[in-house]
UniProtKB/TrEMBL annotation:
Keywords: Oxidoreductase. This is 3-hydroxyacyl-CoA dehydrogenase family protein. Residues 4-183 form the 3-hydroxyacyl-CoA dehydrogenase NAD binding domain. Residues 186-280, 303-366 form the 3-hydroxyacyl-CoA dehydrogenase C-terminal domain. InterPro entries: 3-OHacyl-CoA_DH_NAD-bd (IPR006176), 3HC_DH_C (IPR006108), 6-PGluconate_DH-like_C_sf (IPR008927), 6PGD_dom2 (IPR013328), NAD(P)-bd_dom_sf (IPR036291). It comes from Sulfolobus tengchongensis. One of its GO terms (molecular function) is NAD+ binding. GO terms for biological process: fatty acid metabolic process.
Length: 368
């Protein structure tokens, strides 16, 4: 039974995860490298809990909840009683491995060690410890307090018991877990997303469509909350460049987008730098103005068919179920419907035909 939880790293993700875990009634140890960072994190949690309380979304007072969070500098003996650890330190393999190895010296043999990594293989992080069967991925989305989805990922050595315990634990946080049965680059949600982004980039680089047309089709024909390039601007051109490159390096066969690399080098990083594919005065996101007429200029299947193929591949490979993939894109990417809903609506034959046409006009064979 899980009672005490540790969250390692109190940054963007860690402080939000600690808040979610404390709201669910667990005692939390929040660890980071300095008391100043921890105080800052507590301040943000206090503010967020205050807002939730005002809106009537908490069953207890914000003070009762925050009192369940204790802070600790470094990985100390105070963590020896914890039953479940969620690591959320920066995305560096060596650092994560060091932390897991240090944790193993302190916690009980039965404690589950989970990582919030978005792109590193769970298996490589796990190989830093002796009991690798207790290591699992728990991939929260940003911001953890708002986003419902958590991908629960099985590493090559994760035991059934660890996977199931992590899955059930995430449910107790009032989150919606989906199961990722194989440790593939990008897990489920980022594979679908990056399949769409890299393909959209290919359409632009090969002059099949311009980026405004792509975005208009995404918004008006597929009903996505943002255009594809608008989303890239929103999440960071550089972030998308690094994530896609890291996934490709680790075996995700996809179009290597040159525009993202060039824009990253020029410092055109999207909303945060004021300029990406679109411009953002005062570095603030404003909805991009796109004429619906543009959406008539490109077959929407040219955008979504590669993602439908990816989703089918994941089902065939036993990576995730259709239901979980659809839940993942709806909750993780705010898609209005699941990938398999698009497949049903467009029809399998039309999807196949669109992929064939795309292969022919782009000359790209490997992943279409
Ligand atoms: N930011 C996102 O949108 C997002 C979404 C999903 C997953 N993730 C993943 O979550 C993890 C954390 O990302 P983030 O954006 O919160 O990073 P961040 O840089 O905001 O926070 C990381 C925190 O870890 C702390 N830290 C560094 N070394 C430490 C150590 N030895 N012990 C304890 N704490 C240490 C840092 O001081 C920092 O406060 C990464 O693996 C990232 O890939 C991030």
């Amino acid at each position: 039974m899980i009672k005490n939880v540790a969250v390692i790293g109190a940054g963007t993700m860690g402080h939000g995860i600690a808040e979610v875990v404390a709201i669910a009634g667990y005692s939390v140890y929040l660890s980071d490298v300095s008391q100043e960072i921890l105080n800052n994190a507590l301040e943000k949690i206090r503010w967020s809990l205050g807002k939730l309380y005002e809106k009537g979304q908490l069953k207890e007072s914000d003070k009762t909840i925050i009192d369940r969070i204790r802070t600790t500098v470094g990985i100390t003996n105070e963590l020896k009683e914890v039953d479940f650890v969620i690591e959320a330190v920066p995305e560096k393999l060596d650092l994560k491995r060091q932390i897991f190895s240090r944790l193993e010296e302190i916690v009980a043999d039965t404690t589950i060690l989970s990582t919030n990594t978005s792109s590193l293989p769970i298996t490589e992080i796990a190989s830093a410890v002796r009991r690798q069967e207790r290591v699992v991925g728990t991939h929260f989305f940003n911001p953890p307090v708002i986003m419902q989805l958590v991908e629960v990922i099985r590493g090559n050595r994760t035991s059934d018991n660890t996977l199931n315990t992590a899955y059930e634990f995430i449910k107790t946080l009032n989150k919606k877990p989906i199961l990722v049965h194989k440790d593939v680059p990008g897990f489920v949600v980022n594979r679908v997303l990056l399949r769409i982004i890299t393909n959209a980039c290919m359409l632009v680089e090969k002059n099949i469509a311009d980026y405004r047309t792509v975005d208009a089709v995404a918004r008006y024909k597929l009903g996505l909350p943002m255009g594809i390039f608008e989303l890239v601007d929103y999440t960071g051109v550089d972030v998308n460049y690094y994530v896609s490159s890291a996934m490709i390096e680790r075996g995700f066969k996809a179009y290597q987008c040159k525009i993202l690399e060039e824009m990253t080098k020029r410092g055109e990083l999207g909303v945060k730098s004021g300029k990406g594919f679109y411009t953002y005065p005062s570095n603030r996101y404003v909805k991009v103005n796109l004429s619906p007429d543009l959406a008539e200029k490109l077959n929407p299947l040219y955008l979504i068919a590669p993602a439908i193929k990816e989703a089918n591949w994941m089902v065939e490979e036993g990576i995730a179920s259709k239901e979980d993939i659809d839940l993942g894109v709806k909750l993780g990417l705010n898609f209005p419907k699941g990938i398999f809903d698009y497949e049903r609506e467009f029809g399998k034959e039309n999807v196949t035909r669109a992929l064939e046409e795309l292969k022919r006009i782009s000359g790209e064979e490997e992943y279409l």
